[in-house]
Here is the input.
Amino acid sequence: MSDPVTVSGGGSVAVETPPMLGAAGVLHETVRDLQRIDAALCELRRDPAWSLLDPAARVPADERAAAAMDHCRTAARSAAATADAVRSAAVQYGAVEHLVTAVVDSASAGAAAAFGGALRLAPLVGPVPAMVTGSIELQTTVLLPLAETIAHTVRTGRFEPQMDPVVLRGVQRDIVAIDDLVRGFLLVETPRQVARDDPAAPFGSESIAGALGLGFLLLEHPDRRLRLQRSGVGAMPRPADLADLGRRVPQDGQGTPQLRIERYRDPDGTVRWIVYSSGTVHFAPLHEREPFDMLANLQGVADEPSAAETATVRAMRRAGIRDDQPVLLVGHSQGALNVTRIAQSGRFDVAGVVTLGGPTGQIALPRSVPVLAAEHDEDLVPLLGGTPAAGAAGLNRVVVRRRLYGDAAPRDAGSALPSHEMEEYVRTLVDADRSGATEVRRFEQRTRDYFAGGDGAVSSWQASRATGRLDVRQPRPPRSGHFQ
Amino acid sequence: MRIEDGPSVAVLAVAATRLIALTDAVPLPPPELMGWSSPTSRAYAQDVRALQRSLARLRDELAELAVLLARAGP
Here is the structure.
């Protein structure tokens, strides 16, 4: 049995307060049920038979019904106020946790930088500083995750560090500290870089991913061209809720469409679109025919236009999406990365972004774009995006978190990353829809036009590489002024 | 009591009885938040207990209403 979802509006940190948020969720149900009873009582008093009651019976019945409605409304107000209070407490608790996490991350970055500097200066000051800082690094990066892995294995009989949230958080901390280590060694680390993980800083995650991607291109650089094939054109009702969005994301299968585009026309004539993108289809560094490969992941993290992102933009253009037409972007894994980069580029009028297990936490989108990110505690992929953006960009990002397993065995034992599977993310969105969480409701409110209205049209798009020049080196257009 | 329309009034009584069942099914969270003790959690516990009392009063009123309507029926 997995925990209920945890929703945080702070953007980055999972508020570990399931009992509080669970109670708030139940109280929201209480309010809804009481409102139904209140409505039923109103209906009862409006029933024609009520007016036919003998006055001797109707007067006390009226009094009893009025008293019942009074109790009903008082209880509903009380339940709503309690739900809000307990949720506020959870958010405040999360803010403190956010601060603690930031301090721990900064300490980790500082230790890495100090270790790098001590290594560099060892010929001058001797080996002791390097040994001291190195032992701190060893403890945080290796020994603690190792101890957690051993404890989990003893407890459950299963060796699965790739799904242990504690180990994964440690791995994330290690990843974001690599650039601090390098800059420390080069003696160029600054206090600001210790305090804030900037992917665009020298040797930051964008640089490292870019270098790795460039390496793949140098290893194999065939001349190939992108090809787009449209299929599966038909009518389609609007999605009913967030879970419905998740169900419509194309599966990551080889030889099948990676993209799905829906077009809807509102009664006032506004044309709006939803674009869905699958994740990585092939994990080869540079696949011969598949653009949704590992290279696209690296380029996406490096903020370089990948073939997969380029294919998505071209499919959007060929489907007919104009710059002034609102579009909702939905993506899983690499697809989340691609659509978030597209939203960041400012090339379209993006009305919202839904990411499912994407390494997108560090990508800052403008406040005008509501973002809902679903992430699982046991999923490594979102952590590869580094420490999520803080400040206004982080606050704009609603994060729906779910812990899937605890000590229980994963459902899909055959998958290398069962917590990354689309099926699990759809379950998370189902829970998000039911949560009644204020942040989720606010996101739904801002994107409500996508969920109500007449049917539209759907098309599927498959991108592949063919003979010709590989189109991955296009310069990215400059960012719009309001983007961070 | 004068009975103008017995079967319709009886339907009202049945509807009121159904509302009692609905009230009994209204979900309430546990008053204690496991593993968390603070002024906020104590205030929360008080609120939930007050809510339990409000629901009990609602149920009592509905029960009296159902009895009244049943007596007014055939």
